[in-house]
Amino acid sequence: MLFPPVRIFVLVAGHLVGSTSARPASTRPEPTAEHRDSQNNLTTRTRGYDIPIRRGNFKSSTFRRRGSLSGESGLGDNSDLLYTVPIEVGSTVVAVNLDTGSSDLWIVSDACNTDACKGSTVTRYPTKNANSSGIDVNMLYGDSSSGTFAKGTIGLDTATIAGIAMTDQAFGMVNDTDNPVVKYDTAGIFGLGFPAGSKVQQSALIRHTQSGPINATDDFLLSTYTQGPLLSRILMTDALESPMFTITLHRNTIDISGKGQLTVGKLPDGVDNSSLTWVPVRLYNPDEGGLRPPTFAPNEIYPFRWEVDIDAVYLDGTRLPASTVPTSDGVDATRTSALIDTGNSIIRGPQDVVGTILRSVSPSYQPQDTNPVAVFPCNTPHTLSFQIGGQLFPIDPRDFVSQYKQNDATTCVADNLVTTDAPQFGALFRWSLGDPFFKSNLIAFHYGNLTHPSVDPPRIGFLSLVPPNVGDLYQQAVNNALSDGGNFEGEDL
């Protein structure tokens, strides 16, 4: 999910209730397996695990564990808008939206009765069960036209995903939010981003600065080991084969197909490392909104988001001109990057390039209209491709379109592509590649070394899953819709 620009020059954090001190991963001595589990609060060991994505909305009964060495749980898909994973927090099992664009785990509590919580029947976390830190947290999402918030207090409890449990996990107990995920049988968000983007860790700074001095970035980085985001803490235990995860998403509209899976700690079985195109994650200097280097690593530059450089953008094989939309805050306008974001259900891009694309596929498109729509014949597939690391990664034509009207499979609309803000301080990307991109690619996220990224740099690997006969598959989906009363498979209009 898009994370808003926050003008914080130094990210720091104190110690939450019940935490212990920690040292950077590259400098701590190698403990025995038993001692490491005890020190890291890791109650179950593993080398890596898969979480298959199942179609249909999440129900508590789909949560199950397969023993102590691996785990399996179901991911729900709500009309390709949300992809949820069940997490057990304390004794409560909830469905949370899988989000590579943010860093925090938050859950609506039984005290949430405002905004999106009104009328929601989603399972809520009982506040009486929490070890509350008494620290307030306010998490913001989206861009200037689609921003939402989730606020509450920081709680501590055992968090379990696929049989892997971390005790004293910090998370947001949300008592007020307008985030729409709550309206779709989803209790919150599971952020998979870097610790630098964690508002939970940042918010802990307020309490700590009131009780004593801190050493700026040093305290923030060191506290990640025990107090950081859930997946970051699991990875820093060295209990997994590799500090990484991979995601593929299936499609549940136009043409139900594909295989969705979240794999943690390794690549999926049968996928070779050499088959992926690996590119470095864009690092953020302090004057761009990133972390100031700590005293124990004064020359390090840290990642802030899962963001990579984009070489070029193509529509139906034709290279599009680069965006000339001005940047702000002195941000470099010559570099084009993209946020790789499962929390974004569509593709977002610069106003001028998006306008060019929509006018190309729909000559009748008028962006100045109150509610402009880019309609075109359904039997005319279009392919939007992104060149990354010298390779083209197309979006499957089935993920570029939606059905415009019920009972009409002749007219489609390109509504999976919209504009977003220009690059600015704390948000350097021009593009946000959301779920349509994930349904067309297997994407691997390698955290590397969280305290010393130069030792093991963060990177993202891409593998296209678009089949060679995608044109035939697209046409077959159109033909099936025409013979089925004019409605595409899985559409929820």
UniProtKB/TrEMBL annotation:
Keyword Signal attributed: yes
Top-rank taxon: Eukaryota
Q: Which GO terms describe its biological process?
A: proteolysis
Q: Where is this region: Disordered?
A: 20-49
Q: GO terms for molecular function, please?
A: aspartic-type endopeptidase activity
Q: Which family does it belong to?
A: Belongs to the peptidase A1 family.
What protein does this entry describe? Acid protease
